[in-house]
Batch of 4 targets.
Target 1
Amino acid sequence: MVQTDRTQDVRVRRSHSTARTCVGCRSRDDRSSLLRVVAVWNEQEHQLVAHPDPRRRLPGRGAWLHPTPECLELAVRRRAFARALRVKAPLDTSRVRAHVLEEQQAVVGGSQEPSEHATESG
């Protein structure tokens, strides 16, 4: 009887299922290195808001983004969030921007550069 190595087959399937495409730069990466973003209705402002979902637990369709200011700017410029999340209305991306800048600041180690950009954008 011939034995097959099933662990290799499982590994191939698992790695394939966790690959996602960044809506900013359009490159594929493992979902653990991407930030999930969902559309949430904001009752107070009566508009859809792009909301970061770092735990990947919020309900609804998600868009994936490298948590870098460069990928965020590309996604905003291309209007990729609305297209990926399949919404017609424009999305407020200020929460995603704040999250990305906070994460960038934590990586840099407290550099003042990201906080300067946070006051410029809205």
Note: The beta strands are 19-21, 28-30, 35-42, 47-52, 62-65.
Target 2
Amino acid sequence: MENLLFPLLLVALIVPMYLATRRQKKEMAKTAAMQSELSVGDRVLMTSGIQGIIVEVDETSIDLEIAEDVITTWTRSAVREVLSDDAYDESDPVAEVESAADDTSATDTTPRLNKD
């Protein structure tokens, strides 16, 4: 019985490590393929959380328009994902917040200096 314990222990440790490595390689290959297929006009999400539209593609870098007339240069490896057109909402979040603030009426307008 002791002769079987060590080989079973090795198998129990090696199999999950192999499966995890295999899954990680698949994800890396998928990400590399996505980054190599970037083209002008794609809406992308960067690893830093910035969203923008690709305006120029080089061999190792991309130029990203993050606001009107604001273009930044990034490496291709900084792209996390390509966003679909329905993932981007054209509505203005600032205007929505301002209109929501106008709708609420404050009953007590005196400033409070403490939490009581």
Note: The mean pLDDT is 82.
Target 3
Amino acid sequence: MHWPRERRSSLGWAGAFALEETPVHKGYHSSRKQPIDVAARKSPVFKAGKRLKEKVNGAGA
């Protein structure tokens, strides 16, 4: 699947998907007790829209 160039895809009243980029950073390998380099990556994230939150939590919440 190819992600749109704008890196955000709306689902109308439900919310939107977007790409979140995590840069290269240092991590720690717990069993080897050594520092490691963690590669950069992109992850999809979902942000619920106001109307979806209202439907899930009730109109008065």
Note: The chain has one domain: 8-57.
Target 4
Amino acid sequence: MRQGDLERAVARATGEAVSTIRRMGFQRVEPFDRNRVAFRASRRRNTVQQNRQSERQSDSGRGDDAQISA
């Protein structure tokens, strides 16, 4: 649906002029997709877990070197 189609449909439904609807700034909004939000959250969580694991591995690697040289 194009912007003009939306404005005309809202104008017909409300009885207002298309210019009034255009001035009010009606816009089409995509429906909320819970799956997309859940996917982003799980991907972010996985990235944080991977970062923590790599930090632990690099920290444990430093500790081993320190023990060998001491």
Note: Residues 11 and 26 are 10 Å apart (CA to CA).
